[in-house]
C-alpha cells in the first residue's frame, strides 16, 4: 500500500501575490512596510491628541466657568457645592466615554490597516 503524495497548501497561492508581498513588507520592515506602520501610528497619535484636547478643554472649562461666575461656587445641591458635584459626577463619565471612543476608533483604524495589508476592498 503506497501512501499518497503529500501536497503543501499555501494560502498565498490562492489569494494572489500582492497580498503576501504587502504582508511580507510589513513583517520584514521594508521601506513600504515601515511607511504603512508609521501611517498607522501617526493616525493613532492624531486620534489620541484630538481626544486629549477635547478632554483638557472639557475638564478645564469647569474651573474657568466657576472663576467667571463666582456665584456658581456658592450653589449647593444636596449639601455639596455645585463645582465639586460637577467635577465628581460629570467629569468621570466624560473621561470614560472618551476612553471608550478612543478604543473603538483605534480598533477601527487597526482593522482598516489590516484590510489594507491584506488587500481587501
Structure keywords:
121 residues; two-stranded antiparallel ribbon; mainly alpha
Description:
The chain crosses the membrane at residues 47-70, 82-103. This is Membrane protein. Keywords: Membrane, Transmembrane, Transmembrane helix. With 121 residues, the chain is mostly helical. The protein has 5 helices and 2 strands. The protein has helices at 11-15, 17-27, 31-68, 82-89, 91-118; strands spanning 76-77, 80-81. A two-stranded antiparallel ribbon has the order 1-2. α2 (17-27) crosses α3 (31-68) and α3 packs antiparallel against α5 (91-118). The radius of gyration is 26 Å and the shape is elongated.
Summarize the SSE layout with pairings.
Layout (H helix, E strand, L loop, with lengths): L10 H5 L1 H11 L3 H38 L7 E2 L2 E2 H8 L1 H28 L3
Antiparallel strand pairs: 1-2
Summarize the structure.
The chain crosses the membrane at residues 47-70, 82-103. By secondary structure, the protein is mainly alpha-helical.
Proportion of residues in extended strands: under 5%
Global outline: elongated
Oligomeric state of this protein = single chain
Q: Return the domain count.
A: 1
**Taking all residues together, what is the mean pLDDT?**
80
Calculate Rg over CA atoms: 26 Å
Organism: Mycolicibacterium arabiense
Keywords: Membrane, Transmembrane, Transmembrane helix
Transmembrane segments: 47-70, 82-103
Protein name: Membrane protein
